[in-house]
Design goal:
Helix content: 40-55%
Structural class: alpha/beta
Strand order of the largest sheet: 2-1-3-4-5
Number of domains: 2
Mean pLDDT: 87
CATH architecture of the largest domain: 3-Layer(aba) Sandwich
Number of strands: 5
Distance between the termini: 53 Å
CATH topology of the largest domain: Rossmann fold
Length: 217
Amino acid sequence: MGRQRIVLVDDHEVVRLGLKSLLEHHPQFEVVGEAGTAKEAIDLVASTSPDVVLMDIRLPGKSGIEACEEITKNYKNTRVIMITSYEEDEMLFSAIRAGASGYILKQIASDDLVRALESSGQGKVPLDPSVTQRILQEVRRAAKDEEAQAFSTLSQQERHVLLLVSEGKTNREIAKSLYLGEGTVRNYVSSILAKLGVSNRAEAAAYAVRHSLREYI
């Protein structure tokens, strides 16, 4: 792999000089431009076609996140790694939604920054260890919300019936277990199939298992 061509974006010149000085000690990197605002960054990307933009989230005027979104939308071969002094969840997830290829804190050690840029060049997503756990928690929470939504149209009794269907119980067995009439259970099953948009008990059972119904009883 050739040298990574990098644009540095930070409204503090001292920060840019520090980053440039660090990267110039590593022959695998080439700093092809510096910018202090989002507009300057976008113009630089257009004129230099860098591999990576190392960009502060907080910039005067248009934010780094807005610039990231525009760059990743219009310049598909350029990756954006956001760098910030702050551990803010909303900033983190906004950067990810904007298409950022990585997210690191300015407190990062110089060797770790070099490794982060190298991993980005290999198609990996560099994330500061302090934010990785929060991302995993958010992913898990979103998955849980999606699973819960899968049963939002079912009443609590219908969920109980579906759980027993997923365990292979017959209508008679379900009726006995829930102290219901068989006709009532048949009605529940028909309603469940309609609400879930499935054709038969086997599909309903598979749906229940796939979305972890037991956790929502």
